[in-house]
Specification:
Layout (H helix, E strand, L loop, with lengths): L1 E9 L2 H13 L1 H9 L14 H5 L5 E5 L3 E6 L5 E8 L4
Antiparallel strand pairs: 1-4, 2-3, 3-4
Length: about 90
Amino acid sequence: MYKYVEVVHFKDSEVIDYFMELQKEDIDAALLYLSQWDYGENDTQKILIRQEVFDGLLYVKCLESNKYLALWQIGIEGITLYRKVTCKSA
């Protein structure tokens, strides 16, 4: 079972613009680009289940790989990168 840890939230327009261009052509390259800011520092932060990541958001777009989930709302500048973490089921 996968859960998610928030890695970083991007507001820098250069990062956002470059990601948006990349994701049109190569999803893996786009997620790899964002993942360069994943230093593994926040593994102790609150772990979220997938629904908690999306709760309260409207007009959401996302990209997902076996390691990451990138999420952004249409019309709102910013992208949040989440890292998938494996959790043992109870």
